[in-house]
Amino acid sequence: MSNPEVGIFMLALFLGAVMLGFPIAFTLAAMGLFFGYYAMGPAVFQLFVTSTNDTMANDVLTAVPLFLFMGYMIERANILDRLFYSVQMAARNLPGSLAVATLITCSLFATATGIVGAVVTLMGLLAFPAMLRAGYDVRLASGVVCAGGCLGIMIPPSVLLILYGATAGVSAVRLYAAAMIPGLILTGLYITYVVARVVANPALAPRPAELQQHIPFSTVAWSLLTSFVPLAFLIMAVLGAILFGWATPSEAAAVGAVGAMILSVVYRSFTFERLKEAVFLTARTSAMVCFLFVGSKLFSSVFAYLGGHEVVEKWFTQDLNLNTVGFMMVTQFIIFLLGWPLEWTEIIIIFVPIFLPLLKTFGVDPVLFGVLVALNMQTSFNTPPVAMACYYLKGVSPPWVKLTDIFAGALPYVFLVFICMALIYIFPDLALGLPRWLYDN
Amino acid sequence: MERILLTIDRLSAGVGKAFAWCILILTLGVTYEVVMRKLFRAPTDWAFDISYIMYGALFMMAGAYTLSRNGHVRGDMFYRLMPPRGQAALDLSLYLLFFFPSCITLLYFGIPYAQQSWSYKEVSIFSPAGVPIYPSKALIPLAAAFLIIQGIAEIIRCVITMRDNRWPQRLHDVEEMETAILNEQQDRARAGGDAPPEAAR
Predict the structure, then answer these.
(1) In this complex, is the C-beta atom of A231 within 8 Å of any C-beta atom belonging to chain B?
(2) Cα gap B73→B76, rounded to integer Å
(3) B97–A280 CB contact, under 8 Å
């Protein structure tokens, strides 16, 4: 076997090994060591140590624990009930008001915390029963919770884009700017879809009785002012500081974490116990993400050293004979398929780097590719067999709600994501316009 | 055997939790830098170095703790369908095949790497403040050592599971909110009470 063939063998063996269910970070590192020893001898040991040190000193990844910490603090700030209640009041005159309020609450809360599981379970306990009580269609009600809860991994400031930026060597700031409008378009598509369904068939979402009486404007305004506005302000401040170049993502995340602590003090939910929980969870999740980086750094260096990329490139350009559109379709389809068994962290850190060297060959902007991948990852939570969002919702819903109904409810949103991706690909300025306008003048 | 297992679990959790507080230093240090730079136009010359040092220490030293909580992500599509005994046998062989070689490499080759840095008291090149970075290089072999110790505990855990066909209970610790909520729901369902879900909040 020639070296590039060994590289492909290494990749195939790794894919098989992942399915054995062992912690992926160590599988990666071991594969990197074994094949690295074959390719470059004892030098690989030194490489492993220095590449670990590189990951430890990576100043982009410092934003990861900071954003996680901010998210865990907000998650524990007791803000969600208030937020959902006020948004629900504000949206009460819209068709399918509870579903729309769920989507808006989810998108804001998910953006602030970035933790899909927490958003889906919390909203599954809060909004889902409210919708069922009002007589909403089960599928409609479960779809909005599952789809809305995932928006946080895409809408900036999200950890996903930081990780993509670190693997692709693209500025995280540009990625944030580029993901803004697509994120809003996707949220808009979700809301439009729900409203359209309810207008076409009002029986899907009867208006809840308690919201039919007149509520004075001042009550709604005050309620929004004390729940929606502070959280939205925190996100805007963090995001604004990053986009206008006042602070790096890490700095903005640190200030955001302090803001989250202040918020939880103001909402009288700040206790030492909760702070401790947030600190320990931050450490564990950071270790999980960053050890994947440690492993994948060695793995991808060895893969590149063996020349595995050349084989992949030859497949795409000669064997499959693809043009740029074809390349985009195939890669995004592969990433979509990977989302069935795997979660987004592994896909971004391990698999996306395999395609990155090809972007230049096909003349694809890595920022645009990143935005499309981020959109694509929305689906990974809602496609069986590992549809985590659906399982979380099933876990907190009443026993008579069937898992198949939840799957069916979440499915339309997968298609909405595809529509959004097609839109962004056809009109790339939707993504690339904002960063160009902000930074290239 | 269970005693050794729990002692190691406690050790890893203790180390991980101690270093977890780095996040607070990281948060406050970076915020201090932003405030000083933006409001007082007096940037610090240490905050940048502190930020990546704290981040590196945080995640490296939490590695063993995360392992003790089974927190390192797995591709568990098929794994989760297996009986505990099968899971344990598979885990056991892969700890020996994948885990120990990687961690021992990191320990064995990390020591001279750290020693070299210590020998000339390496400082950061990013700032004139001369923030020392040799202690953080020593964390590489140290983190690997704790991982190896925790790996031994995981091996014991696998052996117990292969004997009992049941995973031994882990130490109680804070869980992700979704896990905590789902466990609570399960307990409720098992208790037979058909309490409405919103009562959980």
Answers:
(1) no
(2) 9
(3) no
Cβ-nearest to A118 among B91, B110, B178 = B178
Give B34 to chain A, closest Cα distance, Å. Answer: 7
Q: Is A120 on the interface with B (CB under 8 A)?
A: yes
Dihedral-angle region of residue A307 (phi above 0 means left; psi in -120 to 50 means alpha; beta otherwise) = left
Helix axes B2-20, B47-61, angle to 10 degrees: 170
The C-alpha atoms of residue A254 and residue A342 are separated, in whole angstroms, by 30
pTM recorded for the entire structure: 0.91
Q: Out of B19, B73, B189, whose CB is closest to A345? A: B73
Q: Which whole-number Å values give the CA distances from A112 to A200, A331, A376, A393, in the listed order?
A: 33, 30, 20, 20
> N- to C-terminal Cα distance for chain B?
39
Q: What's the alpha-carbon Rg for chain A, to the nearest Å?
A: 22
Please report, for residues A356, A362, A420, the alpha-carbon distance to residue A325 in angstroms, rounded to integers and kept in the order given.
16, 9, 16
Please tell me the distance from the alpha carbon of residue B200 to that of residue B12, in angstroms, as a whole number: 32
CB atoms within 10 A of CB A219: 11
**pLDDT tens, per residue, chain A with 441 residues:** 788 889 899 999 998 998 898 999 999 999 999 999 999 999 999 999 999 999 999 888 999 999 999 999 998 888 888 899 899 888 888 888 899 999 999 999 988 888 888 889 899 999 999 999 889 999 999 999 999 999 988 898 889 999 999 999 899 999 999 999 999 999 999 999 999 999 999 888 888 766 666 778 888 888 888 888 999 999 999 999 999 988 999 999 999 999 999 999 999 889 999 999 999 999 999 999 999 999 999 999 999 899 888 888 888 888 888 888 888 999 999 999 988 888 888 899 988 888 898 898 888 999 999 999 999 998 888 887 778 889 889 888 888 899 899 999 999 999 999 999 999 999 999 999 999 998 887
* ipTM reported for the complex, 2 dp: 0.90
Q: Which helix (H) or strand (E) holds A230?
A: helix A217-243
Which residue in chain B has the smallest CA separation from A255?
A: B31
**Residue B171, both tokens:** 């130490």
Q: How far apart are alpha carbons B196 and B185 in whole angstroms? A: 10
Q: How many CA atoms lie within 13 A of B85 on its CB side?
A: 4
A119 vs B49: CA distance, rounded Å:
34
Residue with tokens 């930026």: A165
Q: Report domain extents, chain B.
A: 2-172
According to DSSP, the residues that pair with A24 across neighbouring strands are none
CB spacing of B52 vs A290 below 8 angstroms: no
Alpha helices in A347-398 (DSSP H): 352-361, 366-380, 388-396
Cβ(A186)–Cβ(A88) below 8 Å: no
